[in-house]
Amino acid sequence: MNLTLYIVALLIFTVSAALFSRWLAARINLTADARAEYAERVLTKPATIKGVDEAVFVKLYVGAHEPRWALYMPIALLTATLATPLAAIALTAFWPVFTSMLDGGPWYDVGYYPWMFYMFFGFCGLWALCAAIVARIHHARSPEAFQPALARARGEPLDDVVIRRARPKWAVRARPDPAPQSTPTPETKSATETE
């Protein structure tokens, strides 16, 4: 087998391990932060955690703030990597079936441009399918934002909870003009000149 394939597979496994380590380290740090936040809220703002124990608070806090992409990206990479040899076998086995429906010229032999085109886009389609499936799972399993989840854990109906949104930094300077000046367009300018 080609040494390049081994190097690429090793690189993918290394990147996947680094991303998984990033997710795990962030989760450990967020758990410690959540426990500290819970202890602070017990002392300073007990109404915000009324009826919520520490384990539930930590679960909600970590679930809302963890970098989930760092968990799902290695899953997508490893799925695509492990499915590639199986796809190569399936695509190679299907090539004679596909070319038997064509005129059967020598340009359809393995190694020529039609075969390379077929294999390239077959692999690209497989990798895109793996990414799409993992992205769909990532989206379907996305947790609720922290403040609504905490309000729901306190037993408050979510319709009664008002969540203030922070104003974007760029919007600080954006102020509407109380009396906008209308500039004449070429059509209105010519209409006023003719009158």
From TrEMBL:
Keywords: Membrane, Transmembrane, Transmembrane helix
Spans annotated as Disordered: 171-195
Residues passing through the membrane, by range: 6-25, 69-95, 115-135
This protein's name: Uncharacterized protein
Species of provenance: Maricaulis salignorans
